[in-house]
Amino acid sequence: MKVVGSALLGAPRAQVWAALQDPAVLVRTIPGCERLEAVGDEVYKMTVSAGVASVKGVYQGEVALTDPEEPERFVLRARGQGTPGTVDATVQVRLSEVDGGTRVDYDADAVVGGMIGGVGQRMLGSVAKRTAGEFFSAVESAILSADETPAQEVTVVHGMTPVAGATAGHGAAAPTLPVISEDELAGIRESPTPPPERPTRPVQSGQVFTRPPKPRKEGPSRAALAAFALGAFIALVGVLVGYLIARA
Fold first, then answer.
1. Where are the alpha helices (DSSP H) in 53-155?
2. Beta strands, E only, the chain
3. Is the pTM of this model over 0.85?
4. Cis ω on the peptide bond leading into residue 68 (within 30° of 0)?
5. Angle (CA) 23 8 31, round 5°
6. Main-chain phi, psi angles of 103, to 5 degrees
7. Which residues are 97's β-sheet partners?
8. I need a surface site. Which of 7, 104, 139, 175 has the fewest CB within 10 A?
9. Smallest Cα–Cα separation from 21: which of 219, 182, 246?
10. String of b and e for 3-39 (b: at least 16 CB within 10 Å)?
11. Which residues, including other chains, have CB under 8 Å from residue 214's CB and lie 6 or more apart?
12. What domains can you pick out in the chain, each with its CATH number?
């Protein structure tokens, strides 16, 4: 079975690449993903609860990243099995810069067996593309929400201005704010401080990532936080989108 598709994300390619390598983000982004465990260099075990049509169940699988070329491409190899059937997939993933963001193209070849194999390629393909779309939307939301940091105001003081609310003691001058010159202000305006980059923490073998409990509120939780690769694999079999990598 072959599934080909693409998605556009409104974020720089470097940020998309980084998001696709953060297990703590991915375990909350992958629909149905309950657990990810690092078992080796860029190798993970996963537990996913999902299915297609009436064929539903829990899948245990393993994924590995090969041939990474940051930030342009990588290959994902994945295997999974459960009561509904089995899947063995290879996914070619490419990231390219476009106006306004990043385009992610995926080309997946998969072999499915068991009950899931009897569902039909048309339905599997439809589920794959739908869930891949949901996954990429969640990844994009995760990246954008991480960038939303409160803006810091700069108070410009011409001369020595008393601090609001401050009172001077008997015979003492009221405290004052430091003076910022017009030249310094111009420098601040022209050279804004860039937002901090997402910290990268090495993933240790045996480290486990689990999905946080769902909030009690009813309603769509489209971005349970924000990678794609496994995404194509799990989506392929209707086991929904899955996991990716540890930073190369």
1. 121-147
2. 2-9, 33-40, 43-52, 55-69, 73-82, 85-98, 101-113, 208-210
3. no
4. no
5. 40
6. -105, 130
7. 102
8. 175
9. 246
10. bebebebebebebbbbbbbbbebbbbbbbbbeebbbe
11. 221, 224
12. 2-149+202-236 (3.30.530.20), 151-194 (no CATH)
Query: The tokens 């690769």 sit on which residue?
Result: 229
For 71-119, how does the pLDDT look when each residue is reduced to its tens digit (9 = 90+)?
999 998 888 888 777 888 899 999 999 998 999 999 988 888 877 667 6
Residue type at 102?
Answer: T
d(CA 35, CA 125): 25
In terms of C-beta density within 10 A (0-12 exposed, 13-18 middle, 19 or more buried), how is residue 43 classed? middle
Cα(6)–Cα(133) distance, integer angstroms: 9
* pLDDT tens per residue across span 13-40: 999 998 887 877 777 787 778 888 888 8
DSSP-derived 3-state class of residue 48: strand
Closest to 242 in 3D by CA, of 87, 100, 120, 122: 87
